UniProtKB/TrEMBL annotation:
Name of the featured protein: Small-conductance mechanosensitive channel
Predominant localisation class: membrane
Family note: Belongs to the MscS (TC 1.A.23) family.
A Pfam family reported for this protein in Swiss-Prot or TrEMBL: MS_channel_2nd
Coiled-coil ranges (or none): none
Amino acid sequence: MTPSFFLRRLFGAAFDRRHGRLPIALILFLAVSSTFVLDAAAQSSPEARSSEQVQAGQSVPTDVTSDSINIEMKDKLDGLRQQLNAFRESVQSTPDDDAKLADIRVKAEAIVEEMRVASDAMKVRVEQIQGRLTSLGEPPAAGQPAEAPAVAEERSKLENERSQLNLIVDDAGSLSNSATQLANMITNLRRTLFAQTLFRHTELTPDAFVDAGNAFVTEMRDFYSTIGSWGSFVIRFKAFSLLGAIALSVGAAFLFLAGGYRLFGRFLQRSNSDNPAYIKRLSYTFWSTVMHSITFAAFLVTSYLFLEGFNVLRPDVAPMIATFFGFIWFVHFVWKLTYAALAPHETGWRLVRITDRGARLLSLAIIAMAVTNGLDYLLGAVSVALGSPLVLTIAKSLIASVVIGFILIAISFIRPVMAEGEDATGQGRPWPRYFTVTLRVMGGLLLLCVIAGYVGLARFASTQIVLTGAVLALIYIGLLSGKAISKRGAFNDTALGRRLVERYRFGDVGLDQAGLLVGLGIYAVALALGIPLILITWGFQITDIESWVVSFFTEFRIGSISISIVGIFGGLLLFALGYILTRWAQKWIDGNVLARSHVDIGVRNSVKTGIGYLGVGLAVIVGVSAAGINLSNLALVASALSVGIGFGLQNIVSNFVSGLILLVERPFKVGDHVVTGATEGIVKRISVRATEIETFRQQAIIVPNSDLINAAVGNWTLKNRIQRSEIKVSTSYESDPEKVIAILLDIVSEVPEILRNPGPHVEFLAFGGSSLDFELRFHLADMSEGLRIRNAIRIEILKRFREQGVEIPFPRSEVVYHRGLPIFPEEPDVRGGA
């Protein structure tokens, strides 16, 4: 797969689809325009229009817009039909070119999508015409007065357009079915081609190896001749072009490498620490591999494009150069990943517990497999470019598969595992048994496939073992890195976290949320880079991946539901923009128009609230429409809900709407101390139907949301958790009030939890029946500490009063006996007194 082919497939297909849909967009625009013209014309009676035009000496205008739409649509269908015929002929002529088949399938699917959009638009127009014909009524029967000429002309025109549109819709459906059949046929062809390539059997005879040896000698001679002639041609006629391409390539390399190191330099080099943290080792392994691989790939692609742009490459040399660049990148990628993860020369940065000797041997074995597999594809590209016999390609793949199989078996005999507490310079222990068996089975299967003659299957399996294994290892390291950074408090110890704290003053909560976002971003990067590479190695073409990505972000269907990620993000963006504009309009109107007009504060608040509701409602409608959600479906849902409400769901709906109001308005939140009616406690959960309040006796009270909306609710912690506490104190009449006040203030001054602003004070409340009554008032930062602090203050007051000789009186009663009749007992007369 050449870089030029990649870029052409990446941008060319999208360009073709965009231009292929432009006529459809134009047709839809004209159809809507003509609809508005007809609707505006229908506002007045046909007879009145006809009479006015006759009096003015004008003729009734003919609607040519619909005819132009139909003609253009027919031309479009004819062009697409010719394209399908050309695609069908191309498939029949080259049924074994997988890349070309994938490209044709994507174009056929684009035709299907275009026909679906066009058919939907035409059906809408047919419904509009039918509605207009219904409003005109049936034509007069025989013997009845004739209708106005304008009405008859309009009815005839609409019926003619409807019949034409019906024919176009049928034709578009037929064309869509043909394109769908072609796409399905291509899918079956590609599946068959893939299976044939994998399971093609080759007879391995001595004559085949002799033929392969002779072909190899001939190929080497042709290769040297081709490269030599190309080199002499470039030196004689393209020297300045070659120097220019090399200079631009070197400049591009400097730009990519310098930019990469400037932006991600801290991730691309190891520090001098002997024992770095695990998260730092993961981050270095992942980001150094990703950034080096991306920058090196960008350098190779730009170098190839420069060589191709300056016409330095010949058609017979270009595929070999492109494959050579791919071979270099592949080996570089495996080398960077292996040395970053295994760190054969830096024990502290190693991700796995293996010995130094084991790390060196594993690194050499993995790189050897990568070089062997890459050389197989490079030499295969040379054979294809030079037209060598197929037996030579089979022989090369056979040798590569055998080498990789023996390397896998050899890896199983390495003793790299380091025991707990063992030094990295030790001899190590063997692999776990299951891992040893897995390596030997994979190597043995490769050799068995080669011996059985299934060289294509062995080549495919060896590629998956090397390339897919490396990509999966990179994805796994990326996921581990994201998981490590997402842990609570882990992001605080990273360089990026410390920079956010120093420069932007992030708090602990902000850092924790930033770490979670960074972890999710690493997940996305790892999957976005790894999955396409795995799909390509498994036989999928770039056009397949491009088509899936475009379909995922633009439109993918779940049953009859169509979802567009781009539309959803666009709807959210429009809603956010509408919300910001609404808040700005509220602030501007309230601060400039209403404030300068000296409008009452209540009126100003009502106007501000109304503007907010109106603006947010419009923003919701615009955002939902932009997201591609059909508002008519919402109308159907609303009508169904209204029927349900009418049949006895008033309370449920009332609680549901009240719950939404509580969640949006937030008069209280989970953890608040609230009082409603006879219920007082802490809010534990707010759902859309009811709110759970836990009393201080640990009883859970489920309160319907409508009760909380319609009744008064006290919230002790709505704004903050500050609370005023009071302690009543009574002393005897012999006590000095100023001394009592001083003692109380001195006691609260020693309590650190009591706020100094507002400060504590003592109120001399009253002259009681047997005491002087005081009240100590103070504010606490956290009301949950009130009970403990009040108890402690009461104990301290009692101690201080005893030390200072301040008496706390108690009520006294006098009992007076009155003598009465001797027969009955004397009844006491209890009178209160001092």
